[in-house]
Design a protein that fits this description.
Layout lengths: L15 H4 L5 E8 L7 H16 L5 E7 L3 E9 L3 H9 L9 H15 L5 E8 L10 H13 L2 E7 L6 H10 L1
Parallel strand pairs: 1-2, 1-4, 4-5
Antiparallel strand pairs: 2-3
């Protein structure tokens, strides 16, 4: 017999008196909207960004980049008091063409360089199936750039989506970042 179990562990919410005792966070959401992400993977990516955005304080910063073979800055790095504009931008995310994963990630990272927010955390969150086929596709070159940005305080986390995501690339990016 097979038994499928889902376990979810979540810490309780902080008391309201402690929420604003930390420095602001900066999160750059980068969503792969390529054709291979069509359907459930893209739906899950958008759902994940909404969930994370809802957990940020109004004093935190976030941006949204979407990519296929074109890279779009959908929501420039802004305070989360503008959260409704980020949520509105997520409604228009549709799947498209090929996958320029490096270009999408780089736009998310460069937004921190352009704006230089005074935040305790500068993190790019890459949501993709990792099936890159346009732009820079060499894993070693991509991870070298990710590591370079990490050394400057702009870190990267990855979230692999779909049943056949490129685990090797996504893990290497996460380790470098």
């Amino acid at each position: 017999n097979k038994l499928h179990v889902l376990v979810r562990v979540q810490a309780p919410d902080l008391p309201k008196s402690k929420i604003n005792q930390r420095q602001p966070y900066g999160v750059g959401f980068v969503i792969d909207r390529s054709g291979s992400m069509d359907g459930k993977p893209l739906f899950e990516a958008v759902k994940c960004v909404k969930f994370m955005a809802d957990k940020l304080n109004d004093t935190d910063f976030a941006s949204l980049v979407t990519f296929d073979n074109r890279i779009e800055l959908e929501f420039p790095l802004s305070k989360m008091s503008e959260r409704s504009k980020l949520i509105e931008a997520l409604k228009g995310v549709m799947s498209g063409g090929n996958t320029d994963l490096h270009g999408g990630w780089r736009e998310g990272a460069d937004e921190f360089v352009r704006k230089e927010p005074q935040t305790a955390l500068k993190r790019v969150v890459l949501l993709s199936d990792g099936c890159t086929n346009t732009g820079l596709v060499n894993t070693d070159e991509i991870t070298a750039q990710v590591a370079e940005f990490a050394s400057k305080g702009i870190t990267t986390s990855t979230y692999g989506l779909g049943g056949h995501f490129n685990e090797e690339l996504m893990m290497n990016i996460a380790k470098a970042g």
